[in-house]
């Protein structure tokens, strides 16, 4: 089937469309490709500053390109090789986009097929990255769908406009031109919006890249040799940033440029204070391991992680502001509006190293974990203490103010409950008969853990080996050997904190202030 070439009367743009349908088809194809790429980049930029489908395709090209081509690019373009790569991807996309438009005009289905093929190649490139996130894949899929749907629609309009045999109302050449103009406007606006989103995220990530963390004036304790019990499969003592759990209400990760960042201390203070990024960097910083946990963590859940945090004690800043008597809560506020209410007493306690953290495991805070500054308070669940992207500390009272989650059915106060978890073996695992090694972690932040015990079925509680803690503010590894007979068994764990108090046995769900109950798994022992 060829191009329907009507010779009906028409003037202006409509005539130009009829004379050069292939150019218009090519333009429609390019517009569709650009729209697809933009929507992928925009979504990625909004969802997570470090994501970019185009960058993923670029890295895939670099990985799969023959070494000779790579050397040529580096020789020829030097440090501009990245710009060259992105431009080259752009040129290829424009050419393929144009081809898809022209093909679709010639033979409906073929251009759409080509666009779909390019889309799948893009998705495959994103999927080939080692740290591919479902979010990155979703952005690539959206990009492909937008491009395919748009070329199908625009070329459909073009064909309808060119056909004089069955002129349908609204489906004229001018109708096609209007669709093209409308699409171009939407794409242009999308490009501006994407550039703004990308621009702010880039400013923040450039600042993050350039940042060299100051050395701490007080270092973290070194990890005791027998803290890590070395049982295969047990949770690592220190959680890598890339696998650290993330909980927040932000649909879009806030991009905060540290140069514009201020922390205001307001409310019931003698002296309101505004702290700048440079002020903060110049302070004597301390580095501490602290295990933070989410109040929503179920028994046996993984909304908990341990990191080495670098920051300035909150009490030093509060001392400058001189809280008025009567204040008992610090309401910390994030750029995105989230708030947490922390007891002033805890923050002022010289024995509790509550900090304004800027570093996580030797790196600037990752954007998702609060760059440039967040609070870390040992012993309290995140929802009452760990405000990310923090910009204000308001001195107030628990009677006067409620924080974000406290207005939504959660408690005003959230001390972390003593808990323990079995990591090895996994729930439902099959193991051998006889001696079986169990292992996991236990935590009771700021009180420390003094003992862990395990039990098989309704047997007696047996003491587990407890790894030396890094500090009372972190979790502890434990391991135990038990004897199993053939068949199904239930295995439970419980911890005792540093004050001698046993973990609460009564099962309770997370709301309103944290789950309780013993983590119990079922395993099958057999030959
Ligand atoms: N700005 C902001 N900070 C926040 C939250 C949030 O929703 N917004 N959630 C809190 C909760 S509930 C927890 S458990 C911790 C989680 O910190 P993480 O994502 O770095 O693990 O962040 C806290 N800080
Ligand atoms: Mo949380």
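^ structure tokens above, recovered residues below v
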């Amino acid at each position: 089937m060829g191009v329907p070439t009507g010779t009906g009367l028409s003037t202006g743009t409509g005539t130009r469309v009829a004379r050069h349908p292939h150019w218009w088809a090519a333009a429609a194809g390019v517009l569709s490709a650009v729209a697809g790429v933009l929507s992928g980049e925009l979504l990625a930029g909004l969802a997570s500053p470090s994501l970019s489908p185009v960058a993923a395709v670029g890295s895939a090209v670099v990985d799969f390109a023959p070494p000779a081509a790579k050397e040529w690019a580096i020789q020829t373009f030097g440090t501009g090789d990245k710009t060259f790569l992105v431009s080259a991807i752009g040129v290829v996309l424009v050419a393929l986009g144009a081809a898809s438009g022209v093909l679709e005009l010639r033979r409906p289905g073929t251009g759409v097929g080509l666009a779909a093929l390019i889309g799948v190649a893009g998705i495959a490139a994103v999927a080939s990255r080692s740290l591919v996130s479902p979010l990155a894949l979703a952005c690539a899929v959206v990009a492909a769908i937008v491009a395919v749907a748009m070329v199908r629609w625009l070329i459909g309009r073009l064909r309808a406009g060119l056909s004089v045999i069955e002129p349908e109302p609204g489906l004229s050449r001018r109708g096609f031109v209007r669709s093209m103009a409308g699409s171009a406007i939407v794409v242009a606006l999308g490009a501006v919006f994407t550039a703004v989103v990308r621009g702010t995220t880039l400013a923040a990530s450039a600042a993050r890249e350039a940042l060299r963390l100051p050395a701490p004036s007080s270092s973290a304790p070194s990890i005791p040799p027998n803290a890590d019990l070395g049982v295969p499969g047990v949770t690592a003592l220190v959680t890598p940033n890339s696998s650290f759990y993330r909980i927040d209400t932000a649909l879009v990760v806030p991009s905060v440029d540290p140069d514009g960042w201020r922390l205001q201390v307001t409310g019931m203070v003698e002296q309101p204070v505004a702290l700048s990024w440079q002020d903060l960097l110049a302070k004597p910083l301390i580095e501490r391991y602290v295990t933070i946990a989410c109040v929503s963590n179920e028994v046996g859940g993984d909304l908990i992680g341990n990191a080495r945090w670098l920051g300035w004690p909150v009490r030093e800043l509060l001392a400058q502001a001189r809280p008025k008597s009567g204040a008992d809560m610090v309401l910390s506020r994030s750029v995105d509006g989230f708030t947490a209410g922390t007891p002033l007493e805890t923050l002022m306690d010289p024995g509790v190293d509550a900090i304004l953290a800027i570093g996580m495991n030797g790196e600037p805070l990752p954007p998702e974990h609060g760059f440039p500054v967040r609070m870390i308070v040992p012993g309290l669940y995140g929802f009452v203490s760990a405000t990310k992207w923090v910009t204000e500390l308001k001195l107030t009272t628990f009677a006067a103010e409620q924080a974000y989650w406290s207005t939504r059915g959660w408690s005003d106060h959230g001390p972390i409950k003593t808990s323990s978890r079995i990591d090895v073996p996994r729930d439902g695992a099959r193991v051998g008969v006889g001696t079986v090694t169990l292992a996991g972690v236990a935590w009771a932040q700021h009180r420390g853990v003094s003992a862990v015990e395990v039990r098989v079925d309704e047997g007696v509680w047996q003491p587990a080996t407890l790894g030396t803690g890094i500090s009372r503010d972190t979790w502890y590894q434990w391991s135990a050997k038990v004897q199993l007979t053939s068949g199904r068994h239930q295995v439970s764990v419980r911890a005792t904190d540093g004050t001698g108090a046993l973990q609460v046995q009564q099962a309770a769900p997370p709301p309103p202030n944290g789950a309780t109950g013993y983590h119990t798994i079922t395993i099958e022992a057999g030959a």
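Residues 247, 294-296, 382-383 surround molybdenum atom (ligand 2) (CB under 6 Å).
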